[in-house]
UniProtKB/TrEMBL annotation:
<dbReference type="InterPro" id="IPR036188">
    <property type="entry name" value="FAD/NAD-bd_sf"/>
</dbReference>
<dbReference type="InterPro" id="IPR051205">
    <property type="entry name" value="UbiH/COQ6_monooxygenase"/>
</dbReference>
<keyword id="KW-0560">Oxidoreductase</keyword>
<feature type="domain" description="FAD-binding">
    <location>
        <begin position="320"/>
        <end position="389"/>
    </location>
</feature>
<dbReference type="GO" id="GO:0120538">
    <property type="term" value="F:2-methoxy-6-polyprenolphenol 4-hydroxylase activity"/>
</dbReference>
<dbReference type="GO" id="GO:0106364">
    <property type="term" value="F:4-hydroxy-3-all-trans-polyprenylbenzoate oxygenase activity"/>
</dbReference>
<keyword id="KW-0285">Flavoprotein</keyword>
<keyword id="KW-0496">Mitochondrion</keyword>
<dbReference type="GO" id="GO:0071949">
    <property type="term" value="F:FAD binding"/>
</dbReference>
<keyword id="KW-0999">Mitochondrion inner membrane</keyword>
<dbReference type="GO" id="GO:0016712">
    <property type="term" value="F:oxidoreductase activity, acting on paired donors, with incorporation or reduction of molecular oxygen, reduced flavin or flavoprotein as one donor, and incorporation of one atom of oxygen"/>
</dbReference>
<keyword id="KW-0503">Monooxygenase</keyword>
<protein>
    <recommendedName>
        <fullName>Ubiquinone biosynthesis monooxygenase COQ6, mitochondrial</fullName>
        <ecNumber>1.14.15.45</ecNumber>
        <ecNumber>1.14.15.46</ecNumber>
    </recommendedName>
</protein>
<comment type="similarity">
    <text>Belongs to the UbiH/COQ6 family.</text>
</comment>
<keyword id="KW-0274">FAD</keyword>
<comment type="pathway">
    <text>Cofactor biosynthesis; ubiquinone biosynthesis.</text>
</comment>
<comment type="function">
    <text>FAD-dependent monooxygenase required for two non-consecutive steps during ubiquinone biosynthesis. Required for the C5-ring hydroxylation during ubiquinone biosynthesis by catalyzing the hydroxylation of 4-hydroxy-3-(all-trans-polyprenyl)benzoic acid to 3,4-dihydroxy-5-(all-trans-polyprenyl)benzoic acid. Also acts downstream of coq4, for the C1-hydroxylation during ubiquinone biosynthesis by catalyzing the hydroxylation of 2-methoxy-6-(all-trans-polyprenyl)phenol to 2-methoxy-6-(all-trans-polyprenyl)benzene-1,4-diol.</text>
</comment>
Amino acid sequence: MRQLLLLRRSLISVRFSSYSVSPQATISHDEPNSPAFAENVDITIAGGGLVGSAMALAFASSPVFKNHKIVLLESQSKLPQVSKNKPYSNRVFALNAQSISLFEKLGAWDLMKSIQSVIAFDQGHQSENNSLAYIVENDVIQSCLLERLKQFHVEPRLNSKVKHFEYEENSIRIKLQDEKINLRTRLLIAADGYQSSIREMARISTMQWDYNQFGIVATLQLADNMPDNVVAWQRFLPTGPIACLPLSNTHSSLVWTVPKSMHKEIMKLSDEQFVDAINKAFTSDTYKHSGVISITERIRSYWQQVIPASPTVLQYPPVIINVEPRSRAAFPLTLLNANQYVRPRLVLIGDSAHRIHPMAGQGVNMGFCDVLCLFNILEQAVRDGADFSSLIYLVDYERQRQLQCLTRLLSIDSLNRLYSTNFSPVVALRSIGLSFVNEFSPLKKFFEKQAASST
Ligand SMILES: Cc1cc2nc3c(=O)[nH]c(=O)nc-3n(C[C@H](O)[C@H](O)[C@H](O)COP(=O)(O)OP(=O)(O)OC[C@H]3O[C@@H](n4cnc5c(N)ncnc54)[C@H](O)[C@@H]3O)c2cc1C
């Protein structure tokens, strides 16, 4: 109920938002010590994570923005780097077709493939290329984007945390934490993650709730050398989904959603106990409900009289024998959507605009969609000889992204709720629904396509 009220409030504020500048971020004269000198920049991207780095590369590599000064700010002192022999990192992503085509456009995809032998797995129909997803490590994506940026003479400015910004007549003045440099930028793009301080400074409200769940990630070692380890596994347990993404013949990556009350206990398990718990979560019959199974089986037999059964290949989840040292980590899970993605001269992208439950592996893919959408709009503006930082273009970005992101956030949220229960009627309904989808090929393809796209 509370969520419905929040959603209603959120939709109303999106609908009637006036894009005014917040009182905190208006022209301010209360900084007597601020140096008069400011470096002039066309576009400043704050946040050198995956989404911010891709955004910076999109502008830096575009001939249309050739004469524009692009700056990428990152608050941390270093960003991930990879070498060919480094062990797998614990953060990996299933990139969908749109993200891959963005990387191809940015000239980074070949570089990524040269560092890591990326595994492609089919999310949908074999013959349709756009249903293929590729598993790539966070560090590989990040270091390839930065490598490409270097080729266009853009280096992320490390230790550069945006501390404050204020509006000037035709620009935004940014003050950094170290207080040494001021930037005067025509456009500020916030890619500073889900706890975005820029969003806060702009007083942009959010719709958000805590899932009371944690996502536990780890790199897992498989029992056998499995050349056919190309299947992504996900099992829905009442405690939350557990997923395993293939990395190589010998390794897979874990994303395990657990209730907040359980996460500390799981993180404290010894490696052996942790491995046992994962194998059990993938295979145990504890959560099967005999009444539900019999109803589902009966209904399945009715369908088979009208719908020819699809040939089913029996496959089993891989057996895990070990967890890579220090690869276990836990992240709190929340849903968040900013009620506005833009303000004059300010745009939110990636997790600073929206944060989704990781069960469908959509988060970073949605961020890359923001990058593509914003870049296409601003590039067209420059081609038309217009001022790319004008609010007209920014609002166009918001119009395109808000509805798509909100729809995706809420549909994944509903799935998480549907699966996070042991209540028999719900379990029966969802089993029947799933069996129906599984048997009925056009529906199955429809859902698979939905999962493969993140727009
Ligand atoms: C457990 C888990 C599993 C996930 N699995 C998947 C998956 O399989 N597939 C998928 O698509 N997504 C997944 N996600 C989501 C994905 O991790 C995020 O969507 C993605 O990392 C967001 O990237 P970002 O660049 O927007 O933000 P971030 O990665 O948070 O980067 C923000 C950057 O901004 C910097 N910064 C912060 N404040 C400032 C400031 N004031 N000034 C300058 N710099 C600043 C930070 O240091 C950081 O480098 C998962 C998330 C979790 C928690």
